[in-house]
Design goal:
The complex is a heterodimer of chains A (about 80) and B (about 375). Helices cover about 5% and strands about 35% of the residues of chain A. Chain A has about 80 residues and is mainly β. In chain B, the strands form 4 sheets. In chain B, strands 2-1-7-8-9 form a 5-stranded parallel beta sheet. Chain B has a 4-stranded parallel beta sheet with strand order 4-3-5-6, with helices on both faces. Chain B has a two-stranded antiparallel ribbon with strand order 10-13. The radius of gyration of chain B is 21 Å and the shape is globular. Classes of the chains: A mainly beta (about 80), B alpha/beta (about 375).
Chain lengths: ~80, ~375
């Protein structure tokens, strides 16, 4: 189910919307390192993301990131 | 209402589109604005317009921060970037936005040290690595992007990094939407609300749309079925005589937003009394500046930017397109003098811009319209 949550029209190496506007990227937390976390998108790209604004986070959670910063969580629909 | 889970399932999309069609009142024309440039991109990329009945018109809103940036602010960024001591950093789309005397890519070719980054935190890292240079970050974006700038400045202050500053061009989404609603040029029935801005600000700030203007607003995600589902929710509201804010994107958007991000922004930024928007003019309290507590990091103060206003090229009709008065292909230079390779106006630069989206994905639709006229 988490794979479905990762689906988004941007990935970490897509430079069309990463850099602009309102579009965030869904990523899965691989490991947490202090205020940052190593995260992976649906294409397997990895990046170090600041996670203070959604702390605390755990490995395996799906986050919404924008500009290198996690700004929200992606949850199951209710 | 349960939400669709297979966000690109064609069968589900056709079923939702068919339900939308059954709710459309014969003889009535519906005008729905998607506020966000990311939604515009999805609508064109996935051909959503072709699934909808002709009587439902989607109007593109002002939600692309590159597109709404006035030329004077581009020129001021270029002035800072040309200083020999400066490493000027910005998001990729900004590199090609035309100012009155070129763009950042051109001055980079002439020797200025301009570098593209994916995050303001990358710009801060450059400042750490280059203590003998001044690193400036060109901050742009709505409330989606502003938290990353705020967090970066909080880290810069905590670490005492002195050779870093931000040229702040962050804008806020509610004032321009209110300005559009006050505009006599445009009659709208409802709004598709921006998804990721709402991750930060929540859904409550849109309550003025139904309360003050009688317009429904449905906050939506960015997959094609998210957009279709939000249009269906709007059509249900209109058919049932309801008028409220609804959240189609509950898997990401909390109703109250992200309070930690809002606190961070409140510490680092304050509202500008007014700010110029391309096509919309000056709008009160529609942009952010760096607060006194962080003024050391304010590039506007560090480099004394003059705040000069520069008019758009006369041929460019970005303003009318931004207000939804003209469709992109109705602009007099669309696809001729103004293309994604050689943009005259900012709407043709960003992939979120209505003109670029229309140029890249919408030509067939335009030809179909032309053929039936």
């Amino acid at each position: 189910m988490k794979e479905k949550l990762l689906q988004s029209y941007c990935t970490l190496d897509h430079d069309g919307c990463v850099v602009c506007s309102d579009a965030g990227i869904s990523v899965r937390v691989v490991s947490v390192e202090g205020d940052d976390a190593l995260c992976e998108d649906s294409a397997g790209n990895q990046a170090r993301i600041a996670v203070e604004l959604v702390a605390p986070v755990r490995a395996g959670e799906v986050l919404l990131t924008h500009g290198g910063v996690a700004i929200g969580r992606v949850e199951e629909d209710s | 209402m349960k939400y669709v889970k297979e966000f690109r399932n064609a069968e589900l999309a056709r079923a939702v589109a068919a339900e939308i069609a059954t709710l459309a009142e014969p003889g009535r024309h519906y005008k729905i604005m998607e506020v966000c440039g990311g939604h515009t991109h999805t609508i064109y990329r996935h051909g959503i317009k072709d699934l909808l009945p002709d009587q439902i018109e989607l109007v593109h809103g002002p939600g692309c921060p590159v597109c709404v940036l006035p030329m004077g602010r581009v020129d001021e960024g270029i002035d800072i970037a040309e200083r020999p001591e400066v490493i000027f950093t910005c998001f990729g789309d900004m590199m090609r936005v035309p100012g009155s005397r070129g763009n950042l890519l051109e001055i980079k070719a002439q020797g200025a040290d301009v570098r593209m980054v994916y995050s303001p935190l990358d710009a801060l890292r450059l400042a750490r690595e280059n203590p003998d240079r001044q690193v400036v970050f060109y901050a742009i974006g709505f409330e989606t992007t502003a938290p990353s700038t705020a967090l970066t400045l909080q880290r810069a202050k905590k670490e005492g990094i002195e050779n870093f500053s931000v040229f702040c061009n962050h804008v806020t989404i509610v004032p321009p939407v209110r300005a559009l609603l006050d505009s006599p040029d445009l009659r709208l029935d409802a709004f598709i609300g921006p998804g990721h801005v709402s991750t930060i600000i929540g859904c409550r700030p849109y309550e003025f749309m139904p309360a003050d203007y009688g317009k429904p607003c449905v906050v939506a995600g960015f997959e094609p079925l998210d957009i279709l589902q939000s249009i269906l929710m709007i059509m249900h509201q209109l058919a049932e005589g309801r008028c409220e804010v609804e959240n189609q994107y509950a898997r990401v958007v909390p109703w109250e937003g992200n309070l930690a991000a809002l606190r961070s922004m409140a510490e680092v930024f304050e509202l500008r009394p007014y700010f110029e928007w391309r096509g919309l003019g000056f709008i009160a309290q529609s942009a952010l500046k760096i607060s006194p507590a962080y003024s050391y990091f304010d590039a506007e103060l560090r480099y004394s930017t003059p705040g000069v206003r520069v008019a758009d090229p006369k041929a460019c009709q970005c303003g009318e397109v931004l207000k939804g008065v003209l469709k992109p292909h109705e602009c007099r230079v669309f696809g001729t003098a103004c293309t994604p390779e050689h943009p005259l106006g900012a709407l043709m630069v960003s992939s979120e811009g209505a003109c670029a989206a229309y140029f890249n994905f919408g030509r067939r639709a335009k030809e179909k319209v032309g053929a039936t006229e």
